[in-house]
User: Fold this.
Amino acid sequence: MQTFLRYFNSALPLLGAALILGAAAYFIALAALKRHGARLSGAWKLWLFVSAVYVFSLVMLLVVRGEGFSLEGMGWYSLDLFHEYRSLARSFTANAFINILMNILIFLPFGFLFALPFGESKRRWLVLPLGLMATLAVELIQFAARSGIADVDDIFNNSLGVLCGFALARAALNIRAKRGGRAALCALAALVFLSPPFVAWGVSAASPYGVSGYQTGGRAPLTDEISFSGEALAFLDAAPETYEYYSTPGGTLDDARECASAFFARFGTAIETEDLYDDMAYFRDGPRYVSYHYAGPVVEYCASGEAEPTEEGLRALLGDWGLDLPGAAVLEELGRESYRFSLAPGNGRGGTVDIDLHGSAIRVTYSIFELTPAGGAAMLSTDEIAAQLRRGAYAGWVEDPDAPQEIASAAVEYELDSKGVCRPLLRLDFGPGDLYLDLPAA
Assistant:
C-alpha cells in the first residue's frame, strides 16, 4: 500500500494537469458542437468529459512523465518478452507487481470508454486494434524522445488492459440488455485479462527460494575449450557431494526500529527520520544511519570514527557498536581499507561482517544469521560445469566468450537471496574475474 501511495502521490501533479487540459478540451468540443447545432445528452456529456481527461492523463503519465525530452539519439528499449513476469515469479517485489498491474489498468479505460459509443455495432471490435496502435505509439514516442523505456512487456500489458476494459464494456451493455449469462462471461473474461500479475505473484509465493544478488542465466555462452587447473580440480574432487540451503529468521519493521534505536542510543541520540521501502527501512539520526534489509536481516550501520585496521581493533569496534561477532569468524582483507569477517555455516549460525574504513566514516554491513537447514544442493562435476557455461547459465562477465578458457580456482560461497535463504553458489576464478553458478537441488 505504501508503494502504491508513493506512486499515486508522484503522479498527482501530472493528473492535475490532465484534468485541467481535459476540461479545457471538453468545453472547446461542446462549444464547437453547439456552433454546429448539435446537442448532447447528459450521459454523452459525461462520456466526453471523462474521455478527454483520460486521453490527457495517458499523455501526461506515459509520454510527458515529468522526465523531459531529448532528441539527441534514441532511448532505451527491451525486446525481452515476459521478462517482468519471469522476474516477478522468481521474487516478488511490490514495485514490480505494481508496475505490471498499473500498465494493465492504465489502458483499461481505453477499452471501456471507446467501446461504449459503438454499442452493438459490428465495428465495436475496432477498439482492439486502436488500443494496440495507441500503446505502440506511446512506446515509439518514449523511445524516440527518451522519455521512458520502450518495452514489449508494456505493449503486452497495455493490450491486456484494452481487452479487460472492452470485456467490462460488453458486460455493462449486456446487463443493460438483460442478458445475464453473456454479462457474466464478459466479466469473467475481464478477470482473466487482469490475472497475469496475480498469477506471477502466486508462483513467487509458492517457491521457498528467491533471487540472489548473482542472477544466473542469459549470459554469453562459452564456445571454445574449457579447462580446469590443478587447483580447481583438487577443490572439486575434495568437495562434498551436497551443500545445505539455510533459511534465516528475517526481520520486521519493529525489529528495524529497535535495531536503529539501540545503535543511535550508543551515541546519545535517537531516530530523527525514517524512510520505508518494500524490502528495507532506512533511519537517520543526523550524521549516522542504519539501513535494515528485512531478508536475513542484513543491517548496514554508518557512523564517523576511527578503528585500528587489525583483527583486535576491528573486533573492538564491533563490540563498541554493540554488534556480536562470533569468535570463529575469520578475518580477510578485501583491499583499499575494506575487511571481512566470515563465519562458515555451522552450529546454527553463519554469514559475514564487512567493514569499510574509507575517509572519516566507518560503514559496517552485518550479515550474521541464525541458520536453519532448508534443503540441499548437489555439487557439480566438471562436465556439468562446462555444460552450464556453454549454455550461458552463469553470473558474471567474460571478456571473450569465444576464446579458450581456463578455470584457475573454484570455491563455494553462500549468498542470501531475496526470501532470506542462504544459498550455496559455485565461484569460478577465470583470472580477469569470477563467474558464479547455481548448484542444483540435491
The first strand starts at residue 77 and ends at 78. The first helix runs from residue 2 to 35. Residues 346 and 371 are 8 Å apart (CA to CA). The mean pLDDT is 88.
